[in-house]
Every structure is written in C-alpha cells, then in structure tokens.
Design goal:
Elements: H1 2-12, H2 14-17, E1 22-26, H3 38-45, H4 47-54, E2 58-59, H5 64-73, H6 77-91, H7 103-109, E3 114-115, H8 116-125, H9 139-146, E4 162-168, H10 176-185, E5 189-195, H11 202-205, H12 209-223
Parallel strand pairs: 1-4, 4-5
Antiparallel strand pairs: 2-3
Helix pairs in contact: 5-7
Length: about 220
C-alpha cells in the first residue's frame, strides 16, 4: 500500500513530486484485476467476517501471539512446512531463494498489519484496472470528502517522477499483468525489469536480491548524481 500512496501522492501533489528525483518501485501493486493470491482473495470474499474479528481499527496487527507463532511454532519441524506454504500462498512460490533459517523472523513480522479502512479500500479495488479513492459508501459522504458523489479516479499519467520498476513473474499479489497496466500509465519510466522466478517478497528476502535488484538501484543512483 505504501507504493500506491506514493503513486497517488506524486500524481496529485506536484510540490512533493518535484522533490523526488527517482522513484524505485519494487513489486508495485496498482490494479488488482489479475491478483492470484488465494489467501488474499479468500480474505476479500469473507471481508465482513474478517472485519468483525478485526474491529474498526487494526487489521492483523502485531501481537504477542503472532510473535509466538513466528518465533516458537514455525521453527519446529512439524510446523515449518505449514508456515512456509502459508507464506507462499500469500506472496508466491520461490523456496530456493529464501533463507529457511530465518523463517521465524519472517513470520514474526509478516503480515505486518494495516488499517481496516485500508483493507476495505483494497476490497473496493479488487478486479479493477483503475485506482480510485476510497468510497465512503454513500453519495452524501463522498460529496463531503471529494466534492462529488462518487470516489474520484487517480490519473497516473499526471505523475512526472522518473520511475524504475522491478517485479516478478511468480508474484501472486503484484501480478505481471497488473504491473504492465501500471507501467503503461507511467509517462516517465526509466527502467523496467521482470524477474522470471521472483515472488512478492523476494525483493526483500531473496538470497540473490542484491544481484537482481539492489546493485542496479545503486548504479542508477550513481548515474544520476
């Protein structure tokens, strides 16, 4: 969601966009029409139940129980495959590029949690190829927030920040088709790389992420000093 906030900000607030020389987007999620993560789709399908358990503020917040599961249960041999499969069902399959000795750390911090309203916004965007503002649920409330009865569309073509993108073909959240839709709307793209075996978290935890991504980011920064 942080990447989406960046795209929204840079396309709507020119004073902030002018301060950004290059935007490096790793596995950016823009539209969700082609999203394939079974766990995420199940969450959307049962969102009313999920929200009932989550309350009205935090969705999957960091808790002592989640830390216990990640640090104590997942490292156990009888649970490690279950934990790993849950991780891959959310983000995509790539076991060879993951440091298995760090599984407890990954599960102690992932999912990292977000706001319930953020999840409601995502549910409104599911199966869409466009990025719209949060729909407040009624024409009157939308009028209060946006001065119009429907939630407005964000126009990515208004974003002039130089943008470099890395994504993976095995990403179940940022599907390559959705990333292509985003790429087609960016008017100032300077680099675009798709890695055939990368999932959504390889750009964070991948064993070869320095060779595939980080050293290229450093090169681009140095070339633009």
């Amino acid at each position: 969601m942080k990447l989406i906030l960046s795209f929204i900000t840079f396309s709507t607030i020119s004073k902030i966009a002018e301060r950004i020389k290059i935007f490096f987007a790793l596995a950016p999620v823009f539209s969700t029409k082609y999203l394939k993560s079974p766990l995420i789709r199940m969450t959307y399908k049962w969102k009313s139940i999920v929200m009932a358990f989550s309350g009205n503020k935090d969705f999957l917040p960091k808790t002592s129980f989640k830390k216990f599961v990640g640090s104590k249960l997942c490292p156990l041999q009888i649970f490690d495959k279950i934990c790993l499969n849950i991780l891959f069902m959310m983000f995509g399959y790539d076991p060879k590029n993951l440091n298995m000795s760090r599984l407890d750390v990954y599960f102690s911090h992932n999912p990292a949690g977000t706001s319930v309203q953020n999840m409601l916004h995502w549910s409104q965007l599911l199966n869409s190829t466009h990025l719209k503002a949060y729909d407040w649920g009624s024409p009157d409330l939308n009028l209060v927030h946006y001065n119009q009865t429907t939630s407005p569309l964000y126009n990515m073509t208004n974003m002039n920040v130089a943008t470099a993108i890395w994504n993976g073909k095995s990403d179940l959240l940022a599907d390559p088709e959705d990333v292509n839709i985003l790429h087609s709307e960016i008017t100032n793209h300077i680099y675009y790389k798709t890695i055939s075996y990368y999932n959504h978290i390889d750009s964070l935890f991948g064993l070869d992420v320095y060779d595939q991504v980080y050293h290229e980011i450093i090169d681009i920064i140095q070339d633009n000093l």
